Amino acid sequence: SDGALRPEEIVSESASNGIEVMAITDHDITAGYNEGKREADAWDVKLLTGVEISTPNYHILGLDFDIDNKGLQDLLSYSRECQEEIVRRRSEKLQEVGIPITVDKVKQYFPESRLGKVNLTITLMKDPDCREFYQGMNLRDVLRNYLSKGTVGGNIEYPAEVTPKQAIEAIHEANGVAITLATESQITKNIAPIIVDAGRSIR
Description:
49% helix
């Protein structure tokens, strides 16, 4: 979703380095699986289904689930809508200080992706009308100075998003494994009650 390589390139590069089992875990979208699967079959690599679901503060990784599960796919579609709205709100804040960025510009550079902060940053650096504002900056500089908390593009009111509980339950209902992408303190304070409430273990 915000990487530089196509799914088949990821698979072939991984296979060339001796990887035998892998997953492609794009943010909130599983469209790369089928493209990667064809390449994986050619290399005799086992490709698991995978996705990284965006939730506030941390993400939930899903692996080895039924990719055709309607409940999971509906949740991922909703999450993509939420993330696009966040990009829209960030763009509007940047427009207020004169930077000519729009969601449509981000979509032009990432027509098949779930849109997020990294996609927005790359667009800011590539778009001819925007990049003059970022002369001499790299991607990390732009993220830190314009889109992190406390900056113009980071100071937004967030819309409703997928909750960790919703993500975990959707993955489990699709017979997958849910894994937290969080720090130990986040797990202790925030995730443990969700795990108990969800009624199943999470790694």
